[in-house]
Design a protein that fits this description.
five-stranded mixed beta sheet
Length: about 675
């Protein structure tokens, strides 16, 4: 069979692309962990493709040397497929099968060398190539099948097997068609080069994008968009475009259609490989595209979704809501635990932690930071990820993340486009790198958990609203009592003119007035009047001095230590005094008269932290987390309504600050009030 110019161009182009594929394999050899025989077989295949245009310039028909190279490239692939099947699998192949293939390959090589030595040419060589091609293409397909079936969780190997199968299936078709005439078809032989070009291009892209073994499903399946829409539209559009360009070229410059097509294929292949190598973004997108549309998914999304909904819908107490949200997400990704932050006013504050060693109660994040703004864009942070794609926004992470060494990822909790909060998960036992499937599931779960938390918070707000309704009813009863008190004092005033000289009346009147005063004082303590706020800028030190003055009748007397006059806040003066007054009074109630209450200040950036420390009775962790800041929860039976600390924290958070508590039963308590300064 003689080789035309177009055939020579086609095989030269295929040789170049296959050589690039071979170099890519060698470049990523440490990552992809294939046996060295695979790299050798790829290089021999590239050499075989290159030998066809070279030898065609030296001989008018297929010489014996070309028959030797044809045999060598088949033998190399047979050996590579057998060795890689054993290398990548725990079990060995049957010895009869393995050594039988080796014997056939060696015998064929010896026959080819003998034929070359005898000087056979022309039809004799063609016939030998046909029979050998039929035999070896079937044997090679058998080797591909063994490798494909035995390697279960390596997607790159699956992709390589598909492309090699494509090459060997076409060879079987080529040689079986040529068997009828005992001569090789020039057109099909030329098409063999196009098959090699396409396979080498796909395999090169696969090696670049899937160059790390991953223990996940490598079962091939086409997604519905690819199977129904994308494939047909893309192929049809590409075909029409290539035909239009090629037709225009031929019309202007003349020449052979084959030359144009193979030149375009070569140029397209080289450009594609260059783009894949030079652009990390392109590699990542191709990796996602291949995994998403060619392989089965890592997760059974229906099963995961049903399990998530079932866990979140189980009955729970208000104290367990945050813990359940953390545990559900942690179990889904095999994480040991995590921590939860939720929006409170203008800040995101930690509300719960599970199996996190370090205390996170002071790790507060304002909503206006770049970290929170990036979370609103549904970005998942992976603080210690080796992947550049996952770590590209890690410079926005808050400083406190550096102190949480066990943090694996931070996922946003979004309800519609609003950031409800975020969750940090600890590192799982299986430290597999995150891929697009994990990120899709993380974002979806984050939205569902955000909806779950929002629903429960709305329920709590509704319950609080009902409690305030009860409070309003109580106020009505108080007004009734005031009416009675006024009636008593009116009676005293009415009778004063007549009995003012009667000592018994005077004594009784004094007792009545004293009783009224005591009762009105108690009522006034329970009532809170909602007056319009007057926002001004003032030194925080003045606020603390006024709060101490209001609490001076009780013991122990608070001690104000380091606090600068330059630290100023912008708020309503009386409301901020109320915050510190509540906390100081609580400290006095919990501390013996010979104890102490120390007040200190410390500033960091634009945040002022005021600590109020006492050596009183202290509080349990359970009380702090579940009752301290809840309205109508109090330990002072008969002395309060339990809304003081609730109001204090609500007002502080509305300013962009927070109230944190550190306490140990029997040792004392420290309240840390943070407020922004101007």
């Amino acid at each position: 069979m003689e080789f035309s110019t177009v055939t020579q161009i086609a095989f030269a182009s295929a040789a170049l692309l296959f050589f690039i594929f071979s170099l890519t394999l060698i470049f990523y050899s440490k990552r992809i962990q294939l046996h060295w025989s695979f790299y050798l077989a790829a290089l021999i295949h590239a050499g075989w493709l290159a030998s066809i245009p070279v030898t065609s310039l030296l001989a008018p028909s297929m010489p014996g040397s070309l028959f030797c190279i044809e045999t060598l490239h088949y033998a190399a692939w047979i050996y590579a497929l057998v060795r890689n099947t054993e290398h990548l699998c725990s079990s060995k192949l049957p010895k009869l099968y393995k050594y039988g293939l080796y014997a056939v390959a060696i015998a064929a090589l010896l026959l080819a060398l003998a034929v070359d030595g005898m000087g056979y040419t022309g039809k004799h060589i063609d016939q030998l190539v046909i029979w050998q091609g039929i035999l070896f293409s079937i044997i090679s397909l058998l080797g591909v099948e063994q490798l494909y079936r035995n390697v279960l969780n390596y997607r790159l190997v699956k992709l390589l097997c598909l492309n090699l199968a494509f090459i060997f299936i076409f060879d079987a078709y080529l040689f079986s068609q040529s068997l009828f005439l005992y001569s090789l078809s020039a057109d099909l032989w030329q098409a063999r080069a196009a098959v090699a070009m396409a396979a080498s291009l796909f395999m090169t892209v696969g090696v670049v994008t899937l160059n790390q073994p991953a223990m996940q499903s490598a079962k091939l399946t086409l997604s519905r968009p690819i199977a129904f829409y994308t494939t047909s539209l893309t192929l049809a559009g590409a075909l029409l475009t290539l035909l239009a360009i090629a037709g225009y070229y031929v019309e202007l410059h003349g020449g052979s259609w084959g030359t144009v097509i193979y030149t375009l294929l070569l140029a397209t292949g080289l450009i594609s490989i260059t783009v894949v190598f030079s652009s990390n973004t392109t590699r990542e997108r191709l990796k996602v595209l291949i995994n998403k549309h060619l392989f089965s998914h890592k997760y059974d999304y229906r099963a995961e979704w049903l399990r998530l909904i079932n866990q979140l819908s189980q009955p729970t107490t208000p104290d367990e809501i945050h813990t359940r949200a953390i545990n559900v997400v942690a179990d889904l990704f095999k994480s040991r635990g995590g921590a939860l932050w939720l929006r409170r006013g203008k800040v995101l504050v930690p509300v719960q932690q599970v199996n996190v060693v370090m205390d996170i109660s002071e790790m507060i994040e304002p909503e206006s930071t770049e970290f929170c703004l990036e979370l609103e864009q549904e970005w998942v942070f992976s603080p210690h990820s080796p992947s550049m794609a996952l770590a590209q926004h890690n410079e926005l992470l808050p400083e406190w993340v550096e102190h949480l060494a066990e943090v694996w990822l931070i996922l946003p909790l979004l309800n519609e486009n609003s950031l409800v909060g975020f969750m940090a998960l600890t590192e799982p036992q299986d430290k597999a790198m995150l891929n697009w499937e994990d990120l899709d599931l993380i974002k979806t779960v984050g939205r569902q958990v955000a909806s779950y938390l929002e629903r429960h918070e709305q329920s709590e707000l509704l319950a609080e609203s009902r409690q305030f309704d009860a409070f309003n009813k109580l106020a009505a009863y108080v007004m009734h009592d005031l009416k009675n008190l006024i009636a008593q004092q009116s009676l005293v005033v009415k009778n004063a003119e007549k009995h003012k000289d009667n000592p018994a009346f005077v004594e009784d009147a004094m007792n009545t007035i004293n009783n009224s005063v005591v009762r009105m004082k108690n009522l006034l303590r329970k009532l809170q009047h909602n007056e319009p706020e007057e926002i001004t800028v003032f030194p925080v030190k003045q606020v603390l001095i006024e709060a101490i003055r209001r609490c001076q009748k009780s013991k122990p007397t608070p001690t104000l230590r380091t606090l600068s006059d330059d630290w100023k806040a912008k708020a309503d003066f009386d409301s901020l005094v109320m915050v510190f007054t509540h906390i100081i009074q609580n400290a006095q109630d919990a501390t013996h008269e010979d104890g102490y209450i120390d007040i200190e200040g410390d500033i960091e950036g634009k945040i002022l932290a005021i600590s109020i420390e006492d050596n009183g009775s202290g509080m349990t962790l359970d009380f702090i987390q579940s009752r301290l800041f809840k309205p109508f929860e109090t330990t002072k039976t008969g002395k309060g309504m339990g809304i003081g600390m609730y109001q204090a924290r609500e007002y502080t958070q509305s300013l962009g600050g927070n109230i944190a508590v550190e306490s140990s039963p029997g040792e004392g308590t420290t309240f840390i009030i943070t407020v922004p300064v101007v």
